[in-house]
Amino acid sequence: MGVPTAIAVTSADLALPPQDERTMPAVVLPDLGTQPLEQSLATLQSLTDQHGHVIVVCSKAVSEGVARRLHTVRSLLESDRIALFRPDLPPLGLAVLARQLRQLASCDLSPGVLACAGRLLTHYLHAGALLGSVARLDRVPVGLTSHAKSWVPGSQFAVLAHPVPQLARIGHETTLAGPEFATSMLVAKGQLQSDWITATLAKAWNVQGLRETPLPAESPQWWGTGRLIEFCTFLPDLSVLYQLVASVRQSVCHWCGIDVIGDRCVFCSATAPSLAPTSSASSTSFASSASSVHENQLPAG
């Protein structure tokens, strides 16, 4: 196996500590929105020369300047070896997904399959937060009643942003619908004091391991408040992650020729011609294609 594909993130707080001894280091691309263009070009060119392919995992909460810079650099380098992956996940969930890709980067997966694996693995993440207010929350549907209650002193709200949006005001034994398989949980505390996630939610979800990490800098903007505690559950074991990815049928991208899984190439964004008319519906089959491994590898939750 050659040099592993580089997994890059746009800030240091999205580079979580290694999950295991095989987790590859994250490449941090800081200050993309403010540094000279020549510096960004040199950095990405060096990464592609060294690693062959680069997967940049980027939050949709980053500034427009950062997003524009990434697209500009990729365009100027005329490179089909740089993938810009921006899943619709909260910042902590994004950091967890980037770490899972760093785990898989040590395996014998081709760059295209590894990049597409990010889309598959999002289906197995449950990402949310406990919020002190939902008055400025625009990432998850919020009813007028919840908005009104958010102005009541002491109100707290449990919110699940992914995979299916949920919102509930914290009360006696309040919980959320969670994963139906055993997971680990990562918790990042902001300016809110509560043990609801660790004492109630983690127990209801049968969490097998729980750790804390600093809150990502983008989280208050994403959730609309700094009074929050963010959480994400995930599959921690590399063997399970690998089997999930390896169980999906591979094909060749008709546009750039790279090996892929699923219906879309993350490097060139081309959609498989036979699946193009129903690409929105195909994401469900993309995740369910690994269901047999899911059932066999994961203990009941």
Automatic annotation (TrEMBL):
Superkingdom, according to UniProt?
A: Bacteria
Give the protein name, as stated in the record.
Answer: Uncharacterized protein
